[in-house]
Amino acid sequence: MSLRCVSIAMVTLLLGAGEPQPVALHTAHTTLFLQQDEQVRLRYFGPRLADGDLSALALGEGAFHVAYGDKNPFGGLAVTHDDGDPTLDLVCTGRASAQEGAGKSLTTLTYKDRVHPFELTVFIRTHAESDTFETWTRIRHEEKGALTLHRADSAAMLFEHMPDTAWLTSFPSAWASEGQCSETALGTERGVTLENRGGVRGAFGANPSFMLSLDGRPSETSGRVIAGALAWSGAWHITLRREVSGRLSLEAGLNAANLQYHLKPGIPFETPHFLFTYSACGKGQASRNLHRWARTSGLRDGHALRPILLNSWEGAYFNFNEERLLKMMDGVKAMGGEMFVLDDGWFGNGPFARDDDKRGLGDWQVNAKKLPRGLAFLAKEAEARGLKFGLWVEPEMANTESQLVKDHPDWVLQTHGRPLNKGRGGSQVVLDLCNPKVQDFIVGFLDRLLSDTPGIAYIKWDANADFLNLGSTYLGAKDQSHLWVEYTRGLYAVLSRIQAKHPGVQFKDCASGGGRMDYGNLAYAHEFWTSDNTDALERLFIQWSASHIYPANAMASHVTVVPNHQTGRTVPLKFRFDVAMGGRLGFELDPAKMSAEDVAFSKAAVAAYKGIRPVVQQGDLFRLLSPFEGPYAALMHVTENRSRAVVFGYCLRNLQGQDLTELRLQGLDPAAHYRIGELNSLPKRSHSSWDGKSFTGQTLMQLGLPLTLDHEYDSAVFELVRVD
């Protein structure tokens, strides 16, 4: 099944007359087919077809096109020229295609206005192995004065025959409840808009991604699905609108409510990249496509295994000294960890000492009272224990109670003539990343930090506020609306400069938890902090939702103490481990407060995770039982060659008469035999009668793995290894 008569506004612009010319963009299993005659039309998006079949398709009836600008009622691009003309009449003047290396190609379409010296370039990149497409636009003009951009979407698609059975999967998000999963029948609804207007943490409110299931209620294994994600960390929108006729438009890009951008002559404006993929086999395959794209193209060092670390925050908060930190290092080393990360509280001195969240942010000098021998001493002590060393920073923010703000009050985002709004601790403000001097300051202190302490291997980059004050002292009075674009561009510029100087340092996105769970930031980061909510039960739901779009190796997931610091819930240590092992495993606690029994279990669990880490972090994900739909949850990861798999099962609540008995697996080789071995098992407790035995993949997928999860917070992990 495929999508017929689908039109993308970016590529449906007038051409000169002539014979129809097919433009077929193929990935391994998908075809995106454009027809070029008087327009460029997207005629087919679906399973891969031979070019001969596509040529026949191009002669069929029912093609539909949309033009940009005033001729386009579905959005995409809106401008006011320097003479006040609000219209566009664009003509396609060129098309080019080029290979960008193994499995990648780039198609470029160029358009010019018939009257004004205005040019639009559309880029469509294909990623063959992941069946993923990437599109964005570049706008440039040579008019006498500035042109105003009112709207500049990255993608604007029109579906000619959208069935009434279509469902939208989206991911509402707030602090401590990031990436929830919402599945809603579109039916005949006239419009749905997902958006963020915060400016800094683009994944709060909603995640910049979606899935569109065309054949009824979303399924993991069946039905046509389009999945998309916008690679942008600032304000954005994804809008779906249905006409009475049944057509559905899909638009994604910068949030037009915050966009009034005055574009000077000769300076190009580039939109964020929009990723999309097609699956004929349900949500699961769409997720696997995006995950594979992320590991190869969208995530820093996507094929590298992530380390097991201990982060000091929930174990110490601001209350630590050298002795306590060294004991924490000893503790994580004893459990088999590989890195120690020092969180907030290591900087600031005198009246601005960072002993709480009210002061010191922006003063990036080591706190001499807490750490008299400095960070280099801690890094060397970590190295002596066989650990790598990491550090927390929050470079985009400052406290008004800091030397930085006292010296540079103009570096803070502020509205002229109005008192400052302040965030966390009653004194936090956002620095003006539009300002090159602020960018230089951030790059400078991080460069010195990493150069003076070469043992720092990991930076946890936090951001605990959105735009609190809508104004920049750097931007001109007429360009204050540029803040919504230039702040994020400034952030990306800073990250790019730092990482060019220190390419071996790993970066983690943290923004009050999962506020930067987006592919814009992940181009510069190895992982994100999935949520400040570290409750294992809550994390199971959060990670399940996030896995629709983001791969397991991007999700930092930590084992924490009970009662949990956010919810007060107490769950077994095994359950906490079994949930955290579904992402990048870590700790958020003080090992010195653990019992000997818990330390012994943790050591064994860490060793088990190291064995399955390549499967979890690099394998294909199959979601088996949703925690949103019943008392059980289950998922599994399978290596690309199907030689190994890891299965996770969880009991969320004990309901009599709803026992889980057989769990049907997916993704295995039907003809291969797999030996089943339980991991993280407790003494005299087996969760399957097939533990230690071998069965074919066909049996495991058709009959299922016998599984006993008979009480609340019961959980099981199984490793499957192909045997000759």
Keywords:
3 domains; 13 helices; globular; alpha+beta; ten-stranded antiparallel sheet; Beta-galactosidase, Chain A, domain 5; Immunoglobulin-like; about 725 residues; TIM Barrel; eight-stranded parallel barrel
What is the correct CATH architecture of the largest domain? Alpha-Beta Barrel
Q: What is the residue-averaged pLDDT?
A: 91
> What is the CATH topology assignment of the largest domain?
TIM Barrel
β content, as a range?
A: 25-35%
Which structural class best describes the helix and strand composition? Answer: alpha+beta
> What is the helix fraction of residues, given as a range?
10-25%
Q: In CATH, what is the homologous superfamily of the largest domain?
A: Aldolase class I
| Rg over alpha carbons | 26 Å
Kindly state the number of beta strands. 41
CATH class of the largest domain: Alpha Beta
Low-confidence stretches: 1-18, 59-74
How many helices? The count is 13
Distance between the termini: 37 Å
Number of domains: 3
What's the story with the biggest beta sheet? 10 strands, antiparallel
Bulk shape:
globular
